[in-house]
Design a protein that fits this description.
The chain has 161 residues and is mostly helical. The chain has 9 helices and no strands. It folds into 2 domains: 81 residues, Tetratricopeptide repeat domain (Serine Threonine Protein Phosphatase 5, Tetratricopeptide repeat, Alpha Horseshoe); 77 residues, Tetratricopeptide repeat domain (Serine Threonine Protein Phosphatase 5, Tetratricopeptide repeat). 76% of the residues lie in helices and 0% in strands.
């Protein structure tokens, strides 16, 4: 992890070369040692830093398969799904499943409430999306920068979205 942090501070060209080499090496190792949860999470983060979101998603999917009750892994997996979404595109069914699992593990998870609202909105369940996002607003600190985005989404629901 320290390698990734140090690499993130390098100029883009050097960072890409270093991370690309490390990601290739790690991916090759994981083909033979596929049960290494830490390896999969590091690989997912490396791919994200490289801007390779499909590979990052694949690595998070593998990590989630190895750690189905790890809320942090599931949250990153859900974020990786969203990173590949195009505006207006339906969310894949795995996103709603992940959201439910996150919320079972921690009903007060802020990410779980946000993702749950997205999944409910995507499924056309406006009242459920509204309830989750209103709960999220109540839980967010008053000075949280996310409040504006959540309120915008709530206002969009009021407009029929």
């Amino acid at each position: 992890m320290a390698d990734l942090t140090a690499a993130a501070r390098l100029p883009l060209a050097k960072r890409s070369a270093l991370l690309g080499d490390k990601a290739q090496t790690l991916a090759a190792r994981l083909r033979h040692e596929s049960g290494d949860i830490k390896g999969w999470t590091v690989l997912a983060q490396a791919y994200k830093l490289l801007g390779d979101y499909p590979q990052s998603l694949a690595a998070w999917r593998q990590a989630a398969a190895l750690a189905p009750d790890n809320e942090g892994v599931l949250t990153h997996y859900a974020e990786a799904i969203l990173a590949l979404q195009i505006d207006g595109q339906k969310l894949p069914p795995e996103f709603a499943d992940l959201t439910r699992r996150i919320r079972v593990l921690d009903p007060k998870s802020l990410e779980g409430m946000f993702f749950g609202g997205l999944a409910e909105q995507d499924a056309g369940n406006v009242s459920a999306a509204r309830a989750l996002w209103e709960e999220l607003l109540r839980e967010l600190p008053p000075d949280s920068p996310q409040r504006t985005e959540i309120q915008r989404r709530l206002d969009g629901l009021a407009d029929g979205g």
